[in-house]
Specification:
heterodimer; A: alpha+beta; Heat Shock Protein 90; 5-stranded antiparallel β-sheet; B: alpha+beta; Methyltransferase, Methionine Synthase (B12-binding Domains), Chain A, domain 1; Phosphatase 2c, domain 1; 9 helices; 12 strands; hydrolase (chain B); Phosphoserine phosphatase (chain B); KaiA/RbsU_helical_domain_sf (chain B); phosphatase activity (chain B)
Chain lengths: 133, 337
């Protein structure tokens, strides 16, 4: 059994809780300081996306252990409107919020693995992994 | 590359050590060089802050705890900058790729639309056509008929850039398919109008002037589809006169008739065709007057036609700070004998 824990995202304040849990787990796994900060920023982006566009969802963390390396999986699940054009939101320079968000391309850069699935009207699921270097 | 990186990292540490000791300019110059190497190797700002934190804790093990925490705080603040930097890098690469793709297209356009000035005894022809951006939305083409006539087409797509350029290729191949030396200017426009009306988006318009010069009769026949009027230079009187033109822009109505005009040309007379990129040159915020174009032509009137058009272009290029607002095409035909 690998430990898994989740944070529900309903209001902006929940983003901080998700960041906190993500950082604690990254610290416990002995990620470098820079990687801890990157994982936390990715968590923040994912949680903000849920808060801004889906209204309700959750961020889950899971410790991954394979024969030769250890990592942290961060996934975001929501039951929001879904994404019509995934390739568009994965493009640099595209942010619908109009703000300075790093957006999903930013999350992809911060993490080592990135996978996204979305159904319009049903929701979005994003799975990411960061491995310990 | 990792080796170079390790070298830079240890260099950074030693430079910092020196600087903490004596705060001299030499170490600051050193870190400027290291910083450039970091940029070259795509090292992100957060990684540099992290490197600084590590170096500092080695150099000052008894560092104040508040300062230590503040450095972690700074690292956190730098993460998003790193992301923004990566995004800019990607966009810059994409832009370069796009630019080179467009320049390939522009080269291809030049080949597709290429035309050579015909050599006819007793006629001096000069032409210059320069796009505002990489691709040209102006078009000119010469046809030498079997009967010794010279056909000259000049067109302008309203708008510029890639859509205009694509449109021009279609026009050229439509003209190519006509037995031109057997067709008069007004018939060519009538046919082209049909092609444009059927094939081009209704928001795009093309103006064209098509002329035919018959050296044996010293006669110029022409028809215009809403094109910028040209000028006739009477050498004897030394005066310019706007060439009479009337005709609907290509592609507006499916069945349009065009009127044929005729002009008799005497020795040393000139006919000038141009696009609105010439008459709508700007001097700062001010559009130039047509008079100004004619005055510049007059200034160089003793030169061969090609040198006149080149000099006129150079004049207006300079006037607009070497940045054309629109594609620029100017053609001069002079009867020498």
């Amino acid at each position: 059994m690998t430990p898994q824990s989740c944070v529900k995202i309903r209001e902006e304040w929940d983003i901080v809780s998700a960041r906190q849990l993500g950082r604690e787990m990254a610290k416990k796994l002995r990620f470098s300081t820079v990687d801890q900060a990157r994982i936390t920023t990715a968590v923040s982006e994912l949680a903000r996306n849920i808060y801004l566009y889906a209204e309700e969802g959750q961020i889950c963390f899971e410790v991954l252990e394979t024969a030769d390396h250890k990592g942290l999986s961060v996934s975001a699940t929501d039951t929001g409107p879904g994404i019509t054009d995934i390739s568009q939101v994965m493009q640099d320079g595209f942010t619908t919020s109009g703000g300075l968000g790093a957006g999903l391309p930013g999350v992809k850069r911060l993490m080592d693995e990135f996978d996204i699935q979305s159904e319009v009207g049903q929701g979005t699921q994003i799975n990411t992994v960061k491995w310990i270097r | 590359m990792d080796k170079i990186m390790d070298l830079d990292i240890s260099h950074y540490k030693s430079l910092l050590k020196k600087y903490l000791r004596n705060q001299n300019e030499q170490s600051l110059y050193g870190v400027e060089l290291v910083s450039k190497s970091f940029i070259k190797n795509n090292i992100l700002p957060d990684e540099i802050v992290n490197l600084h934190i590590q170096a500092l804790s080695e150099l000052c093990p008894d560092l104040n705890l508040d300062v230590k925490h503040s450095m972690d705080f700074l690292l956190e603040a730098m993460i998003s900058y790193g992301l923004a930097l990566q995004e800019v890098q990607t966009l810059r690469e994409e832009q370069l790729a796009l630019k080179s793709e467009i320049s390939v297209a522009a080269n291809m356009q030049e080949t597709l639309l290429g035309t050579t000035v015909p050599e006819v005894e007793g006629l001096d022809i000069g032409v210059i056509s320069v796009p505002a951006n990489q691709m040209n939305g102006d078009y000119h083409h010469f046809v030498k008929g079997n009967d010794g006539s010279i056909g000259i087409a000049m067109a302008d797509v309203i708008g510029k850039g890639i859509p205009a350029a694509l449109c021009m290729s279609m026009i050229k191949y439509a003209i190519d398919s006509y037995p031109e030396d057997k067709m008069s200017p007004e018939m060519i426009l009538k046919n082209l109008n049909r092609v444009v009306e059927r094939n081009v988006d209704s928001s795009m318009f093309i103006t064209m002037i098509y002329s035919q010069y018959l050296p044996s009769e010293s006669k110029l026949m022409y028809a215009s589809a809403g094109h910028e009027p040209g000028f006739y230079y009477n050498a004897e009187k030394g005066t310019f006169k706007e060439i009479e033109t009337e005709g609907l822009i290509l592609g507006v109505l499916p069945d349009t008739n065009y009127k044929r005009y005729e002009l008799e040309i005497h020795e040393q007379d000139m006919v000038i065709f141009l696009t609105d990129g010439v008459t709508e040159c700007r001097d700062g915020e001010r559009f130039i007057e047509t008079e100004e174009v004619l005055n510049i032509i007059k200034e160089y009137i003793d030169l061969p036609a090609q040198e006149i058009v080149t000099n006129v272009y150079k004049h207006f290029e300079k006037l607009q700070d070497f940045q054309l607002k629109d594609d620029f095409t100017l053609l001069i035909l002079r009867k020498e004998v």
